[in-house]
Amino acid sequence: MSQHLLITGAAGFLGRNICEVLGQDYTIRGLDVVASDVVEDFVVGSVTDAALLDRACDGIDAMVIAHMLPSGAENYASVTRPFEVNVTGTGLLFEAAVRAGIRRVVLISSISVVNGQNAAGEFLSVDLPVTPDGIYPLTKALQEEVARYFHRKHGLQIAMLRPAYIAREDSLADKYGIKRPTVNWQFTDPRDIGRAVGCALRVPDMACEAFFVACGPHVDSRVDVARTRERLGWKPLHTFSQYPEDA
């Protein structure tokens, strides 16, 4: 019998691509604040609505948390809305998962939780302390802390994926439609993030673990994706090797 997944943020750029990949192997229910035809079973509503989350979790076997408050200076001018959607919404999803008996969650975090070390040119490993340098990466770091709490308190199996710069390899377009003329190690196709989600869902002994997801040229020299490949059995299909690299 096919497993049933709840994917939040399913109408967004990343969410749609995750649904595209996982829809081949799972029965998916999408959740977002706007309607979408990305999957047939779709719930329209906010992750801050606890009653709606209970309905969305009914009959679900695993959860993929991929929502975020849209970027923009107006949304991230203060902590109010980002904390409400990104942090409180994530906590409410974990609470709903516990009530529904959902044991496995994949959280889409961000490489930005270690922006401090990345800016300094350090090699990025999951052992580094988080060093968010803005409100958005701060909310991602807090999402991870919420996940660790629910793992300790309720024993949930949680994979926290930390993707880098997300753009489609076929178009080089990111979620805003922006196309950069050159690429670097941080480029990551959203379909490969979807494949990493699928791999994480299949690891039988998952605890609460972080994994970097990046696919661009020379990625192994900058970030520990070897652990992601080995632990998850993940292999990216899109490496951006056909494009010129940043100077």
Entry summary:
The chain is an alpha/beta fold and 247 residues long. The chain contains 7 helices and 7 strands, in the order E-H-E-E-H-E-H-E-H-H-E-H-E-H.
Explain this structure to me?
The protein has 247 residues and is of the alpha/beta class. The chain has one domain (4-232): NAD(P)-binding Rossmann-like Domain (Rossmann fold). The chain is 34% helix and 15% strand. It has seven helices and seven strands; from the N terminus they run βαββαβαβααβαβα. The protein has a seven-stranded parallel beta sheet with strand order 3-2-1-4-5-6-7, with helices on both faces. α3 links the parallel β4 and β5.
* Total tally of structural domains: 1
Mean pLDDT reading: 96
Proportion of residues in β-strands: 5-15%
Number of strands: 7
| Full CATH superfamily name | NAD(P)-binding Rossmann-like Domain
Helix content: 25-40%
Keywords:
single chain, 247 residues, alpha/beta, Rossmann fold, seven-stranded parallel beta sheet, 7 strands
Q: Could you outline the blueprint of secondary structure elements for this entry?
A:
Elements: E1 4-8, H1 13-22, E2 27-32, E3 41-44, H2 50-56, E4 62-65, H3 80-100, E5 104-108, H4 115-119, H5 135-154, E6 157-163, H6 190-202, E7 208-213, H7 226-232
Parallel strand pairs: 1-2, 1-4, 2-3, 4-5, 5-6, 6-7
